[in-house]
TrEMBL record:
Record organism: Cyberlindnera jadinii (strain ATCC 18201 / CBS 1600 / BCRC 20928 / JCM 3617 / NBRC 0987 / NRRL Y-1542)
Lineage: Eukaryota, Fungi, Dikarya, Ascomycota, Saccharomycotina
GO biological process: positive regulation of mRNA splicing, via spliceosome
Protein name: RRM domain-containing protein
PANTHER family xrefs: SPLICING FACTOR 3B SUBUNIT 4
Record keywords: RNA-binding
Residue ranges occupied by any RRM domain in the UniProt entry: 2-80, 83-151
PROSITE patterns for this protein: RRM
Entry annotated with the keyword RNA-binding: yes
GO cellular component, one term: precatalytic spliceosome
InterPro entries for this protein: Nucleotide-bd_a/b_plait_sf, RBD_domain_sf, RRM_dom, SF3B4_spliceosome_assoc
Residue ranges of the TM segments: none
Length: 151
């Protein structure tokens, strides 16, 4: 994936503002600012998906130091494979928000991709991913889950 992590975002920042900013530098496929389930506000970080690795590199070269509402954005290239866990044996009632509750306590989540009876949980850094391996063998909604590094 050709994705950039954006952090240290002020609460007034909107997906359309991020879209406008990045579009000035490269074509944008999508912008995602994860929201807190209760407050329904973004959590101060997000992701911008671009068309190519070249676009990602160019944005990382041009945009560091940009301030939005007096807060300097943090930018990093996202490499999902390095920080991903594969979760198996999930109950059919387990959804993204349930997994978010379980795994968010180990560190910042980039994304959760749901499958049938499984999921891929992507962390921002390898330390968080490593800590989250503790979930292996625990019960989530009456099912003993298997958690392992994604290969």
């Amino acid at each position: 994936m050709n994705t950039i992590y954006i952090g240290n975002l002020h609460q007034s920042v909107t997906p359309s503002l991020i879209q406008e900013l990045f579009t000035q530098v490269a074509p944008v496929k999508s912008v995602h600012l994860p929201k807190d389930r209760v407050l329904q506000q973004h959590m101060g970080y997000g992701f911008v998906e671009l068309n190519s690795a070249k676009d990602v590199d160019y944005c990382l070269k041009v945009l560091p130091g940009v301030k939005l509402f007096d807060q300097t954005m943090k930018l990093n290239k996202v490499n999902h494979e390095e920080h991903s866990l594969f979760v198996r044996n999930l109950d059919s009632l387990v959804d993204r928000s349930a997994l978010q509750q379980v795994f968010a306590k180990f560190g910042e989540l980039v994304d959760i991709k749901m499958g049938k009876g499984n999921a891929t949980v992507i962390f921002r850094d390898s330390t968080s991913m490593q800590k989250a391996l503790e979930v292996n063998g625990t019960m989530i909604m009456n099912c003993k889950v298997i958690v392992e590094r994604k290969r």
